Amino acid sequence: MKPSAPIIHDLLTIPRTLPSGPVNLIGISRALMLKKLLEIGTPEKQVKMRAAQLWQWIYQKGERNFSQMTNLSKNYRELLSENFILEVPKVISKKCSKDGTRKYLLQLAGGHEVEAVYIPEEGRGTLCVSSQVGCTLTCSFCHTGTQKLVRNLTSGEIVGQVLIARDDLGEWENLSGTNNETRSLSNVVLMGMGEPLYNFENVRDALKIVMDPEGICLSRKRITLSTSGVVPEISRTADEIGCLLAVSFHGTTDEIRDKLVPINKKWNIETLIKALKDYPRLSNSERITFEYVMIKDVNDSELDAFRLVKLIAGIPAKINLIPFNEWPGSPYKRSEWPKIKKFADIIHRAGYASPVRTPRGEDIMAACGQLKSETERQRKSKKEITMEAGI
Ligand code: SAH
Ligand code: SF4
Questions:
Q1: Which of 327, 338, 363, 375 registers the highest number of CB atoms within 10 A of its CB?
Q2: Is the pLDDT score of 204 beyond 80?
Q3: Is 115 a catalytic residue?
Q4: From ligand 1's centre to the CA of 338, what distance in Å?
């Protein structure tokens, strides 16, 4: 069969703008919403109130049908639906793990797919959100990094994942009167597919809505953005977003980190550590999380643990040890438990919290680093994709 052109386009470009067509009000900033409402003829005197009402409907009541927004006049509701849409990604499937983890496979405009994962914990629940379809970085231990198809998510597609999880958890009805502490979806982590700092503006706009008291209304301390180490964007994260930061560290020498996290060849350990030391707002109550995936015989020696402690000296930090999660064809094995324990002890004795992250949702391939679009999972090699595209 003759290959279709869009596949070639997908392979080569990362769209940075919203898809054309009617404007989706979900995910746009307040300022842009005011502008759009003025453009359709909303009187200037009313525009702030109309935007506040829309935000309440969309982000606090979960309403995605203009006709149900009963505190707006019928004519105005019609005007809105003639000019705008309220769209979130389509849920293609939901898998539930025996440990309660839920994985959503979502389809975006254009047919691309991403995954989002909800992890229930004692008294709280965390949604792991994706920021890109695939990832341009190719960390050798990460399933997402093997996916060739890459595009940035729009801010609406990022916030949309939170709305979808709230739908599924039936949380809209129970929302009024609850605070961050008692919600099923109490925390958001940007640790799904993609490198969030390679999609900075859209991630920032989405997280601002998640943190806005009239939006999703989660405190900024309940939001963590994880980066593989895009150094130039690190201080912007503090200045323009203000959420907590996690860094995928994984290697204590440039030689090891170059192999595991190849972005290290661009910004090496020394440059990264300097950027983290300069990270504004750092204090003991707002520490940087160092993520460290434990891979058998690669980065799990006692020497590695001592080197890690030395490298991060002076940075208020917590070290999150992640036992390596295997995926089909993965080139590594998980470190053995005694080694993980020894590593954790050394870090703990140096005065840092060193929790070991319990793998969640492994039976549905929802654990850290196992995410990959379902359709991509079936594709085997770049050669095959290239052949399909007829390049
Ligand atoms: N791109 C960002 C965020 C997504 S990855 C980043 O790299 O930080 C989220 C976390 O999962 C990162 O800490 C990543 O290193 C970790 N991870 C990736 N693959 C993994 C695997 N196979 N097992 C365990 N953790 C993994
Ligand atoms: Fe991308 Fe993060 Fe996976 Fe590396 S670990 S390939 S940066 S998603």
A1: 327
A2: yes
A3: yes
A4: 22
Instruction: State which CATH number among 3.40.640.10, 3.40.710.10, 1.10.150.530, 3.30.830.10 fits the domain covering 23-85.
Output: 1.10.150.530
Q: Which residue has the higher pLDDT, 175 or 86?
A: 86
Sign of torsion over alpha carbons 247, 245, 362, 112:
negative
CA distance 378 to 364: 16
pLDDT-derived band at 367 (thresholds 50, 70, 90) equals confident
Read off the pLDDT band of 283 (50, 70, 90): low
**CA-143 nearest atom, ligand 2:** 3
Residues with Cβ within 8 Å of 176's Cβ and at least 6 positions away in sequence, in order, are none
What homologous superfamily is domain 90-389 in, according to CATH?
A: Aldolase class I (3.20.20.70)
Give the model confidence (pLDDT) of 342-362 as tens digits. Answer: 999 999 999 999 999 888 888
Q: For the chain, how many residues are written?
A: 391
Q: Whose CA is nearest to atom 8 of ligand 2?
A: 194
Binding-site residues, ligand 1, Cβ < 6 A: 141-142, 191, 195, 226-228, 248, 291, 293, 322, 324-325, 368-369
